[in-house]
Each structure stands twice: as structure tokens, then as C-alpha cells.
């Protein structure tokens, strides 16, 4: 991905280096609040809990970054965020017919607070619809490489684009609609709605990737393969197998590896947000 030397976004809230409000001993409660608020707004955050409904723990130093790596990651995220602003402003103008409202992306190290609760390296990146901000621990990219074997800058860009896609869903009213559906359903059915939310975000990420190439010329050979490999590595079935469990489809909240790859490809091939209607699809 061509990003070095390019202008970053002004919509970065940098809480690294002790600037963040610390979750401290209340981090477990904070994570539970993220799950609750995420459910209310249609953003699934149940991946923060394991199958026994206990708070997920981090993987030690698996995501540790040295100072140089962390600063490079911060600069990279800023450039990718700027790209999403350019792309989604254009798409909203052309396909939606109204202005795009840019979100804030919060960079933090270790732990921080959000209106959705405390965030830490254990939570992974997430979008909080309460304050319309995306939250990202810069160490997550190292964790992707070391724990999931996901490499490449465009794979990391896909992660940022996916969280910004949740902001797009929020602006389009999709998260609110999803909440109304989930409030009328049991857990298994609610999980199915969550899968549709996440696969749509993957599809929107593909729409972004196509437009980023068309408008900005950012993609390089192999970039799409990096994004697809990332989508494959973080499918529900792949993650459950990696943890030594037999995949249990009724517990899936983000979609299988095959589904995540296919919906990203759909977005990239069409470049049309209307092609990302996972809620109207008979089959995912």
C-alpha cells in the first residue's frame, strides 16, 4: 500500500503515552458495558467474552510494539483514516445523496475509556456508536502478525476500514434497525443479525478499497490478497479452530472465513454500497 509521505487525518485523538483515562480495576466491567451498549446499538461485541461469559484476557506480549513501530503504526492509521474520509465523502455524495460525517479515531496504548466502557488490548478494535468514535490499540497490528500470521500493511488497512464501515452503518441508520430486530429475538437469532452486520462492514471495506484505488491509487500488487488473508484468518470458524474448539455456527457473530472473504470481494468488485445488503440476502 502506498502510504508513506502522504497526509494523515486531523480526526485522530491520540491517547498514547499516558494521556488516556485508565480503566484500571474496572476494566472487566467496562468490557461488559461495551458488550451491552454494542447490543443496544446493533454492534456485536460479544467477542470480548469467551464461551463461559468471562472476560477475555490478553495474550501477554504477543502484541507488544517498540517505540518506533508504535509511531509508524500511528502514522499509518492516520493516513488510512484520511483515505476513508476522502472515499466515503465521495461515495456519500455519489451514492447516498448526503454529506458524510467524519468519525474520530482514538489511538491508545494498553487501556482507555469510552462511553461504551473500558477498552484494552484484549478487546481488539471497536466502534462505539455513542460517541461515534473508533478505538484502536496500535499494538493490535503486531498481534495480527504474531498470533494470526496476518502480514502486510493493507491487511492492517482493512482492519481500520472495517471499523470505519461500522460508522457508515451508523450514519445510514442500519445499526438502529439491527437493534430493533435483535430485541425481538433469542440469542442464536441475534447472533445471526450480528453476522449480517459484520459481513456488511466487510463488504463496505471492499467498496472502500476499490474507491481508494480509483481515487487515490493506493493499492499495490498483492494488497488485495493481504486483505483477503486477514478476512480468512479472523473468521469465526478459523478463530474457534485456532483455540482448539470445534466450530459452532450458532455462536458465530462475525461470519466464517469464506463469508468474510466473499463479502469483501463483493464490495471490491462492485464498488456499490447497494451490493452490500446482507440483510436482504437470502444466503450469506
TrEMBL record:
<dbReference type="InterPro" id="IPR007343">
    <property type="entry name" value="Uncharacterised_pept_Zn_put"/>
</dbReference>
<keyword id="KW-0812">Transmembrane</keyword>
<keyword id="KW-0482">Metalloprotease</keyword>
<keyword id="KW-0378">Hydrolase</keyword>
<feature type="region of interest" description="Disordered">
    <location>
        <begin position="1"/>
        <end position="22"/>
    </location>
</feature>
<dbReference type="GO" id="GO:0016020">
    <property type="term" value="C:membrane"/>
</dbReference>
<dbReference type="GO" id="GO:0006508">
    <property type="term" value="P:proteolysis"/>
</dbReference>
<keyword id="KW-0645">Protease</keyword>
<dbReference type="GO" id="GO:0008237">
    <property type="term" value="F:metallopeptidase activity"/>
</dbReference>
<keyword id="KW-0472">Membrane</keyword>
<keyword id="KW-1133">Transmembrane helix</keyword>
<dbReference type="Pfam" id="PF04228">
    <property type="entry name" value="Zn_peptidase"/>
</dbReference>
<protein>
    <submittedName>
        <fullName>Putative metalloprotease</fullName>
    </submittedName>
</protein>
<feature type="transmembrane region" description="Helical">
    <location>
        <begin position="20"/>
        <end position="41"/>
    </location>
</feature>
Amino acid at each position: 500500500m502506498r502510504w508513506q509521505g502522504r497526509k494523515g487525518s486531523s480526526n485522530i485523538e491520540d491517547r498514547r503515552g499516558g494521556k488516556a483515562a485508565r480503566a484500571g480495576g474496572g476494566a472487566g466491567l467496562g468490557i461488559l458495558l461495551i458488550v451491552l451498549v454494542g447490543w443496544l446499538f446493533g454492534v456485536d461485541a460479544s467477542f470480548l467474552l469467551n464461551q463461559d461469559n468471562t472476560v477475555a484476557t490478553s495474550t501477554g506480549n504477543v502484541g507488544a510494539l517498540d517505540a518506533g513501530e508504535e509511531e509508524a503504526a500511528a502514522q499509518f492509521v492516520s493516513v488510512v483514516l484520511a483515505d476513508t474520509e476522502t472515499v466515503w465523502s465521495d461515495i456519500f455524495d455519489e451514492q447516498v445523496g448526503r454529506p458524510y460525517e467524519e468519525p474520530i479515531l482514538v489511538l491508545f496504548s494498553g487501556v482507555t475509556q469510552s462511553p461504551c466502557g473500558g477498552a484494552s488490548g484484549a478487546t481488539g478494535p471497536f466502534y462505539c456508536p455513542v460517541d461515534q468514535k473508533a478505538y484502536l490499540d496500535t499494538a493490535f497490528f503486531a498481534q495480527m502478525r504474531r498470533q494470526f500470521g496476518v502480514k502486510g500493511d493493507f491487511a492492517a488497512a482493512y482492519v481500520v476500514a472495517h471499523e470505519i464501515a461500522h460508522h457508515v452503518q451508523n450514519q445510514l441508520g442500519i445499526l438502529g434497525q439491527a437493534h430493533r430486530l435483535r430485541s425481538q429475538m433469542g440469542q442464536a437469532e441475534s447472533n445471526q443479525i450480528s453476522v449480517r452486520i459484520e459481513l456488511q462492514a466487510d463488504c463496505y471495506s471492499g467498496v472502500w478499497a476499490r474507491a481508494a484505488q480509483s481515487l487515490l491509487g493506493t493499492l499495490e500488487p498483492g494488497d488485495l490478497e493481504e486483505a483477503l488473508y486477514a478476512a480468512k484468518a479472523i473468521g469465526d470458524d478459523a478463530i474457534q479452530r485456532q483455540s482448539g474448539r470445534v466450530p459452532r455456527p450458532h455462536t458465530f457473530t462475525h461470519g466464517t472465513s469464506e463469508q468474510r472473504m466473499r463479502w469483501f470481494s463483493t464490495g471490491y468488485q462492485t464498488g456499490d454500497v447497494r451490493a452490500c445488503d446482507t440483510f436482504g440476502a437470502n444466503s450469506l
